[in-house]
Amino acid sequence: MNKIVGDSDILWITLDTLRWDVAQDAFWKGELPNISKLMPSTGWEERHSPGSFTYAAHHAFFSGFLPTLAKPGPHPRLFAARFPGSETTAPNTFTFEEATLPEALSKSGYRTHCIGGVGFFNKQTALGSVLPGLFDESEWKPSWGVTSRNSAQLQFERAAEVLAESDAPHFLFINVSAIHQPNCHYLPDCQTDGLESHRAALRYVDSTFPILLDALKRRSRVFGAVFGDHGTAYGEDGFYGHRNGLSSVMNVPYFDFLLENS
Minimal CA–CA distance to 201: which of 159, 150, 137? Predict the structure, then answer.
């Protein structure tokens, strides 16, 4: 990462509430033709989230604690805030003095920009302003929120505009809200969220992904990471939603990529 930071745009996309099992099955069945253009042939990595809901997970992410490989470690991290005794900071880790990566990259000359999705990014309350407040620039609109059926399309359109506005290196973060409940509106005549509507929401996000792909192809070099922040339960062991320790919540999909354009 020390060779990438300063020489590449950095893109993080959190697919809010996306479960590992649904994501990987959709990949194997060819339901993600656009996102898979950036993925390895094996699909998503199974990882453990550091948090069971959006606010907790993203606080960890922004200090370098991305989802951890779902097998015994330790696993060296890509990014890390400096602190004594870290067992996952390695020579290839981009280590920074600031508390968060957005702050560190801003001081390194990056344009840091947050495109919000779920309520923790809406800037309508003090709590909803904490995470977007880490960035130089942040935006949220109701049409990017969880109740908007066209949220991903509109978020990716704005992301494409942001990338076209400047040749400066970007740290662009997008919190995609579409998969979060409610997602039943992605299936005809569906009134109740479930695994099938969760999956349909992921297919919808994939259908809009070319908007962002085209914008990335206009940048010279992009390091990206795409991952779930946490999953959610649809009745397993009687649980619904997240903020619990079920594997359907804590196991999330992840992949990263380096895109170099001639």
Answer: 150
